[in-house]
Structure prediction request, 71 residues.
Amino acid sequence: MAIARPVRPRNIIRHGLNKRKMEDARKTEADEEAATRCELRPQILEYAVRLIADWNERQAKRANPACGRGR
Prediction:
């Protein structure tokens, strides 16, 4: 049975640096994604408003004005 060698402090330090680098990279990526979402939000809202307006217009054309009278 092999005896495990003790972990050397320099390995811990290296691991800590790599971990910080990875966390920084993730944070940078998340910040870029958030900025992209903020840029797209007005475009998405504008598109949604246009879709709703088109839908309402189509529904108005299909509506029968005689329906619902006298009831």
